[in-house]
Amino acid sequence: MSIYYRVVKRVDPRDPQGTYKYYAAGASMGRATLNDLAIQVARRSGHSVGTVAGILYDLCEAIVYFIGQGRNVDLGNFGIIQLRLRNKSGSITKNDFHLSQIDEKKLHFIPGFTITSQINGASLTDAESLYNSLAGIPEEEAEEEMV
């Protein structure tokens, strides 16, 4: 397995007035849909795509149900899904707190051993040439832009 990355120029958030430095960032090569997942699982499991897709949709509903009950969803070696709240601001006392201070509700995924071990063991591939070829930029022009 390979993980795609690209090199990006960023300022250190701890030193906004500092100079830019170059960092690696994960590179997306598109999106895998729920149907794409169903097809991949169906190929490996021998079940039909429709059966697997139905199970995945039901899994989504079950996750929402248990999060709505205030529970974390433990998916074993796959990981844990939990609700996190982000606040716009805090209040000095508990009695001063208002629900309007909650800015957003997010689901947070903590990968388990199975995913973590696969990601940690993956090789890294520079995505820049792939991005350029998808954009139709010849290699010579891409090299000139980098200089």
Structural class: alpha+beta
Query: Spans of 5+ residues with little confidence (pLDDT < 50)?
Result: none
User: What overall geometry do the principal axes of the alpha carbons give?
Assistant: flat
**Distance between termini?**
31 Å
Rg over alpha carbons: 22 Å
Number of helical elements: 5
Counting DSSP E segments of at least 2 residues, the number of strands comes to 6
Biggest sheet, spatial arrangement of strands: 2-1-6
Describe this structure in words.
The protein has 5 helices and 6 strands; from the N terminus they run ββααβββαβαα. It has 147 residues and is α+β, with helices and mostly antiparallel strands. The protein is flat, with a radius of gyration of 22 Å. The model has no long low-confidence stretch (mean pLDDT 89). Strands 2-1-6 form a 3-stranded mixed sheet. The protein has a 3-stranded antiparallel sheet with strand order 3-4-5.
Key terms for this structure?
single chain, 147 residues, alpha+beta, three-stranded mixed β-sheet, three-stranded antiparallel β-sheet, 6 strands
